[in-house]
Structures are given as structure tokens and as C-alpha cells.
Amino acid sequence: MVSNKGVIPRLKDILYSNARSILDVGCGGLAPSDFWEVFSHIPIKYGIDINLENIISMREKFPDGVFICMDAMLLDNIHLHHFDIVHSQNVIEHLNKTEASLLIEIMEKLAIKQIIIGTPKGFRQPDFINLPYYEHRNFASFWV
């Protein structure tokens, strides 16, 4: 199981406190509830995830959010509101360099006040996950 224990306090510190809306890109996954607890004070909450099971789970846990099953790379092709905050945790490392750059550009277009992107520091691919969109790609060169 993924732990966000060290990330949550930092997220609370940097999160824009007067936010009225948030888009969480890749809202499902192994430990999303931790983040959505931090977002509880934000009135308008949207989440997208490529995995339908994750979307169904998030809808059950957080009925006040709007959850859409879609590929984050298609965000630019649909009409969505702009959001005070666009957040993406543990997503970008699943993309190649070109896709990651494009996703950041899309997030910049959708964000009004703040973009928060998190990625693991050190990671071992779990044996129990065998889905193509969970694969971590060689990402080290993106930051060089």
C-alpha cells in the first residue's frame, strides 16, 4: 500500500487556502483518500482518472466530488472550467517526457492560482499491479 504520510503535511502547508475549486488529475489509485481529506474545505472538487474502478470508488467515498473517467492527456480536448488549483500526485512518472510536458502545459491552462505536482522519490514497481497505465517509465531525464 502506498503511504502519503510525509506528503500530506507538506500539501497542507502549500495548498492555496482560499481555493474555491480544484481539479485532481489522477484522483484514484492506491491511496487517494489522504489527498481528498486535505481538499475537504474546497467547495468545487473535480477528479479525473483513467481507471473506471478508481472513479467508482472515489464517487462512493466522496459524494460531494465530480469524478470523470478519462485519460489526462485528453483534458485539452474537452470543455472544463478553470480551477483555482490543479493537483496531480503520482501521475507524471507514468508518462514519457513528451507526454509529461504536454500534461504540464494542459494543467497550466486549467489552473488559475496554483499547480501542485507530486511524484515519488525512489520507487519499485509493485509486482501485484499489472496494468499498462501503472507502469513507471524512465523519468529521470525529464528533470535534467
Q: Would you mind describing this structure in some detail?
A:
This protein has 144 residues and is an alpha/beta fold. The protein has a single domain, classed as Vaccinia Virus protein VP39 (Rossmann fold, 3-Layer(aba) Sandwich). The chain has four helices and five strands; from the N terminus they run H-E-H-E-H-E-E-H-E. The protein has a five-stranded parallel β-sheet. Helix 4 links the parallel strand 4 and strand 5. It is globular. The C terminus is likely disordered.
| Adjacency order of strands in the biggest sheet | 3-2-1-4-5
Number of domains: 1
DSSP strand content: 15-25%
CATH fold type? Rossmann fold
Major beta-sheet overview: 5 strands, parallel
Q: How many H/I helical runs?
A: 4
Instruction: Write out the CATH superfamily name.
Output: Vaccinia Virus protein VP39
Overall geometry: globular
List the helices and strands and how they pair.
Layout: H1 7-14, E1 21-25, H2 33-38, E2 44-49, H3 52-61, E3 66-69, E4 83-89, H4 97-110, E5 111-118
Parallel strand pairs: 1-2, 1-4, 2-3, 4-5
